[in-house]
Amino acid sequence: MLTSYDVSSLVIDRLCDQAGGQDVAVACFYFDFAAQKEHSPTSVLGVLLKQVVGGLDEVPGEIVKAYENQKKVLGGRGPRLSDIVGMLQATTSEKRTFICIDALDECVAGHQVKLLGSLSQILQKSSGTRIFVTGRPHIETEVRRRLAGRVTSVSITPRRDDIISYLRARLDEDLIPDAMDSSLEADILKKIPDDISEMCVWLPTLGRLP
Amino acid sequence: MSQSFSNNINSLNTFNTFNAADHRPNILAWLSPLEPRLRHQDIQESRMEDIGEWLLQTEEFRSWCAGSGGDESDSAVLFCGGDPGAGKTYIR
After folding, report:
1. Same domain flag for A136 and A164
2. pTM for the complete prediction?
3. Closest approach of A186 to chain B, Cα-based (Å)
4. What is the pLDDT along chain A (210 residues), one digit of tens a residue?
5. How close B15 gets to chain A, by Cα (Å)?
6. Does A129 reach chain B within 8 Å, measured CB to CB?
7. Mean pLDDT score across all residues of chain B
8. A15 to chain B: which residues are within 8 Å by CB?
9. Same domain membership, residue A174 and residue A139
10. Which of A19, A30, A152, B28 has the most beta carbons within 10 angstroms of its beta carbon?
11. Residue A105 domain-assigned?
12. Which residue of chain A has the CA closest to B18?
């Protein structure tokens, strides 16, 4: 109903809408358990850089030079993590940049440390850069530790309005609308959000029981 | 003969002169093979309108979004903690 990637895509869309016409870059990445192997820190930071550079009129000379140099060896070697971080530091200092990372907990633990370390290096050079991260609550400690003192947080729980929007959408999709009358619909829109709100109040308590 | 040789040299020189604009797609592909645009599109299409809007109205989001790293209390990072399917299992 309300997933972390829904929240990420909502935020990304809002940032992209705001960026339209302004000199702002938005770069995002969605982690996925099923593709952990391909999601190395180098490829993830590389794709963030790719999106920032994609929005520039010209590819910065430093990146062109690195590309030319690496193409000459081993039949075309990929970029190195340190180079990518350096290039991100340079581009984000020039242009206000929003970086969005979804489901960081689905990234391999060792990679997570490297990624957060690199993001911290980027923030040190360009403090105006904004980073948005979603993930299961347990990784907040790690995020706070690696990005020392620069983190604020919001907890994603289904709000009453979200539940009602979801129910309305599902009722609209009903294939046998004749089976529904207005009082049943009103009942559904009242009782289910009430029950879920109660569950949400109780669930954290139940989780702490032995 | 010499004319044709000279033409060949010229075209070789042109070929050797690296034109960054022509190589733009190759350079971008070299930076990373990943394409998060596609995943974003999938999620965007399945997302229900208005769900999660409240987050965009929170003080945390607004000040994170507007901040520019100028003062010491500024938070450059906004962390949203939640289950990947928060609430999903309750009303499937």
Report:
1. no
2. 0.78
3. 17
4. 567 778 888 888 888 888 877 889 999 999 988 888 889 999 999 999 999 999 899 999 999 999 998 887 777 788 999 999 999 999 999 999 999 999 999 999 999 999 999 999 999 999 889 999 999 999 999 999 999 868 999 988 767 777 777 777 777 777 777 777 888 888 877 877 777 665 554 444 333 344
5. 14
6. yes
7. 74
8. 65
9. no
10. A30
11. yes
12. A68
Chain B CB contacts of A5 under 8 Å are 43, 84
A123 within a domain of the structure (yes/no) = yes
Residues A78 and A170 in one domain: no
Q: List the domain range (segments joined by +) for residue A73.
A: 4-146
Give a yes or no: residue A153 inside a domain.
no
Angstroms from A12 CA to nearest CA on chain B: 9
Residue B25 in contact with partner chain A when CB distance is under 8 A:
no
Residue A43: which CATH number?
Answer: 3.40.50.300
Query: Do A123 and A24 reside in the same domain of the chain?
Result: yes
pLDDT in tens, A147-190: 986 899 998 876 777 777 777 777 777 777 777 788 888 887 78
Is this prediction's ipTM beyond 0.90?
no
- For residues A33 and A80, membership in a common domain is answered with yes
Tell me the torsion sign for CA atoms B40, B45, B48, B49.
Answer: positive
Residues A81, A173 share a domain = no
Domains of chain A: total? 2
Backbone angles phi, psi at A96, to 5 degrees: -60, 130
Q: Is residue A9 domain-shared with residue A71, that is, in the same domain?
A: yes
Residue B54 structure tokens = 């409240």
Q: How far apart are CA A52 and CA A59, in angstroms?
A: 10
Task: Please indicate, yes or no, whether residues A106 and A32 belong to a single structural domain of this protein.
Answer: yes
Q: Do B78 and A154 touch (CB under 8 A)?
A: yes
